[in-house]
Amino acid sequence: MSIKNNRLTNQDYEFNFADIHPPFETPDAALTEANRCLFCYDPPCMKACPTSINVPKFIKQIATYNDKGSAHTIFSSNIMGAGCSKVCPVEKLCEGACVYNLMHETPIHIAKLQRHSTEKAMKNQWQLFDRKPSTGKRVAIIGAGPAGLSCAHTLSREGVEVTIYEKEAKGGGLMTYGIAAYKVTPEFCEDEVNYITSIGGISIKYNHELGRDISIDELQRNYDAVYLAFGVGKARQLDIPGENLFGVTDAIKFIYDLRNNDYSEIAVGDKVAVIGMGMTAIDAATQAKRLGASEVHLVYRRTQEEMPCTEKELNIAKLDGCNIIWLAAPKEIIGDGENVSQLVCDVMELGAPDASGRRSPVETGQTFTLDVDMVIKAAGQMPFSEMVAGENLQNNNGKVSVQSKSKTSLDNVFAGGDCVNGGREVVDAVQAGKDGAAAILKTIISPDYIIESELKPTFNN
């Protein structure tokens, strides 16, 4: 057993990391699917979307050959609609709410239709929004991820000048650095960032980190408002013996390195254990398998009923040949010298429900051992507690505390996305950015200021 790179041929890597959700092969295929839609009154799919995309409207526009209008409808609610069409867990959102499910029929492929029109808009560089006249106001945003970009685009449309400070060398945040490469490529993420900023009035200062290169106090002096959208990123530690052995890494770093290098350069073990069962754990496990690992075990301390990932994501891991071990928790990592050689796990059982109704895992006293040469930790992410405290932000265990969706404890400083909620879906971050922009406009322009995204959508073609 060993950890090494270049396990596969270039052809293997290309095949393994090809688009897992390919688009419609022809325009006629998109039209056929669009015409399956029942165009429900009071549509449940729209209610299930955190950004309230008017799904029947954009599908009707596709069905009537109005792809540009369809893209406008989507982007009006979700400026990252193209990326979300690739990464959203639609089976528990819009497609999961489709009325066809009640008829025991295949739901409308909403994500695929959304991808059809949004990617066409990006490819053809359709400029679907005009900026309002300048308000003379300037806003600083920390983080060029989904929340930050959504806030920036909404503000720019309203005539506000926006400067985004991003600690990485590229924008996109989680989309660029934290999602499986077979779902969305770095090149697509770059194209999406460029498309969003092409409206004008948005500049991004890369390699600028809060607490290192800039401070909130400094930004407060130079801008009319500040929006914090720096997300989360620190991996939760297992706090078990052997965690510092060579071969132990966290899923965030593993995926980050994979997104920033050629696949052949990423070292992976022959026998890998991934701790956790969230989306990040699934992404790490499947990519380890696709990089050439012969065995990948997903270790989760609860049962399938409690898993954070969707069944669709779990099935991807199963189809890739990952082994699922339920009711198991890491106890100790054993090394052969300085290298990982085994993972010892406690056998768990579910105890009585707590106040929230969720049954907590408890040890049974039994253990088992896996022979592994790599352990990937995906047991959750931690907020940037030290940075938040250093900026004198009121917080809850490192998560920025807000009132009325986005107002922080500091004057004219707002926040949203993962740095507030601790980590949710990309689409939730997009909505948080819209909420933040609305709150900022009401503060720096007028308490009665209304933006288009706050208006109740109407269904028309």
From TrEMBL:
InterPro entries with a match to the protein in the record: DPD_II (IPR028261), FAD/NAD-bd_sf (IPR036188), FAD/NAD-binding_dom (IPR023753), Helical_ferredxn (IPR009051)
Top-level taxon: Bacteria
UniProt xrefs under Gene3D superfamilies: Alpha-helical ferredoxin (1.10.1060.10), FAD/NAD(P)-binding domain (3.50.50.60)
Molecular functions (GO terms): iron-sulfur cluster binding; oxidoreductase activity
Residue ranges of every copy of the Dihydroprymidine dehydrogenase domain listed in the record: 16-125
Every FAD/NAD(P)-binding domain range: 138-433
Protein name, UniProt field: Pyridine nucleotide-disulfide oxidoreductase
Organism field: Flavobacterium pallidum
Lineage per the UniProt record: Bacteria, Pseudomonadati, Bacteroidota, Flavobacteriia, Flavobacteriales
